[in-house]
From TrEMBL:
This is SRPBCC family protein. It comes from Acinetobacter albensis. It holds the Pfam family Polyketide_cyc2. CDD domains: PYR_PYL_RCAR_like (cd07821).
């Protein structure tokens, strides 16, 4: 199984960065022009973007990619999986949060991916790594 990892320091407290990255709408800023919308709320009314929530990603009315939040440990970790995608055999996204100090947070974003077609995983992961680096740089300027 192939994977990538991106690390980024944010000049803000861990609570602020976790709250930012735990909201599906944030990814509209980070990964523009790709659009992200929540299509299913979690069962936790305090965190509608929490465990069990589903987001769709794409452009305009065409949003074929669906991701479901499978784990959320406040200020520590978020995990999600791609669901209902015939091209992807396995996709796990893990976002980990570590306080460097009270005003600086290290975010580590790991993606494991296995596509059904050979050699496709490496191409997708290379594109994702580039998009995440760019997206995190954009977000870092907003905090």
């Amino acid at each position: 199984m192939k994977s990538i990892q991106v690390k980024k320091e944010f000049n803000a407290p861990i609570e602020q960065i976790f709250n930012l990255l735990s909201k599906h709408a944030t990814y509209n800023i980070a990964f523009a022009p790709i659009q992200v919308e929540r299509v299913k709320d979690s069962t936790d009314p305090e965190r509608p973007d929490g465990v069990g929530s589903v987001r769709r990603m794409g452009f305009g009315p065409v949003k074929p990619l669906q991701e479901q939040i499978t784990r959320m440990d406040v200020n520590q970790r978020i995990e999600y999986q791609i669901i209902k995608n015939p091209l992807i055999k396995h996709h796990l996204g893990i976002i980990e949060f570590d306080a460097i100090n009270e005003n600086k947070t290290l975010v580590t974003y790991t993606i494991e991916l296995q596509a059904r077609a050979p050699f496709v995983s490496q191409i997708i992961l290379a594109q994702l790594k580039s998009a995440i680096k760019l997206g995190f740089s954009k977000l870092a300027k907003t905090v």
